[in-house]
């Protein structure tokens, strides 16, 4: 178990003198007296109980997911749901011959979601599960690119004269930047105009389109702030544009968070396949679908929008189900968990959980507003994201980053981060009122925020030089390239 390389004799000797047996206390074991491997694998095997404990102890250094206030991703599931996931963890969702019932359950989920998104009955929707919204967005983007190319060629547009482009607001999640880099598409960013207009301007979006535009991506729940793009207005604007355009432009809705929230909480709001130009939609099953990380969904309103050459029929696993995924092998667990949630809660249960989250979010926003020092940018009414910034005050020496640091003292992980392009000098903080956050927890948070403010007012009295760097970001940002370094 040493990370420092030792000769095998040395090692033998140590084991000779310190043999672990079934009565050795875990924390009296040889392994517990040495650091775990960092660069080379250990020579010898280790008792599973010891290995488990020592490896599991490493996790203590991660944050507690339940305290992670900024994430959209599910951090709690019922024991029965966890059990379902463990029951399916050894299955491989891609292996449709060996696990036909996983395939069947995936299809049921696709049907359920397509219906939640009001897929028209006179068209033939198609859909698939993915690892998350990122894979789902990539697939939506690829379908738009391939379809554009085919139509452009048919219309006699020189497809090599320029790169195809994708129109999205500057509030895009990093996946759209990745999509454009990986698939060689120009990212046409429409800036969000001001703090009071944190959404895609439909007129600006359509004005950015030309013959090389593969699609426009509005966001149902901007990752930064939770605000919604006005897709009804965009659809209308695009309808006019498409009347005279040489090549029509479709809409893909990035509904990573709103996709499995709105159908339960605000089913009247049309943002989905009820709008004519919306051809595809993606969402994260692990956000408001309430499944643990590792699940997304993407749908097309009709097979016309999913070019056939993107579908693969893999024969060697014994079935001929067509697939359209970037990923191949992964467990069926998340699909089963999504299906469990649908069965377990139904519309009523999802509504109850989501409305509770919304109430908790609104309560938090009101509590923060009362403190008098914050400007609330999103009060949780759309999706339950509460997002705020400090009001200007020359007398105050501390920043949102200091508040974030101080809240760590209580265990809370509540990052501060800059807004995107055009508004990058604005620092905000964000809390996602999630399924597993109760009024009690958020009341405690409010109290800790109040105490932190008092502490900071008392202890930080001299302004620091604000260093503008990547490291300045206490949590993470959403469209910034980052690599894990050693
Ligand atoms: C979270 C998010 C994504 C990425 O989703 P993953 O499921 O984490 O891959 C993409 N777009 C938006 C708007 C998001 O909020």
Task: Provide structural commentary.
This protein is of the alpha/beta class and 486 residues long. The protein is built from twelve helices and 13 strands. A hairpin with an 8-residue loop joins strand 12 (416-418) and strand 13. Helix 3 (79-87) packs antiparallel against helix 10 and helix 11 packs across helix 12. The chain binds pyridoxal-5'-phosphate. Pyridoxal-5'-phosphate (PLP) binds next to helix 5.
CATH topology of the largest domain: the name is Aspartate Aminotransferase, domain 2
Question: Strands of the largest sheet, in order across it?
Answer: 1-7-6-5
Which outline best applies? Answer: globular
Q: What fraction of the residues are assigned to beta strands by DSSP? A: 5-15%
Number of strands: 13
Low-confidence stretches: 471-486
Major beta-sheet overview: 4 strands, mixed
CATH classification class of the largest domain: Alpha Beta
Bound molecule types: pyridoxal-5'-phosphate
Q: CATH-wise, what's the superfamily of the largest domain? A: Type I PLP-dependent aspartate aminotransferase-like (Major domain)
Mean pLDDT equals 90
User: How would you classify the helix and strand content by structural class?
Assistant: alpha/beta
Helix count, DSSP H or I runs of 4 or more residues: 12
Radius of gyration (Å): 25 Å
The percent range for helix content is: 25-40%
Kindly give the count of domains: 3
Looking at the overall shape, the CATH architecture of the largest domain is 3-Layer(aba) Sandwich
Order of helices and strands: HHHHEHEHEHEHEHEEEEHEEHEEH
> What is the assembly state of the chains in this entry?
single chain
* Cα-to-Cα separation, first versus last residue: 20 Å
Biased composition (Basic and acidic residues): 7-16
GO molecular function: glutamate decarboxylase activity
Region (Disordered): 1-20
Protein name: Glutamate decarboxylase
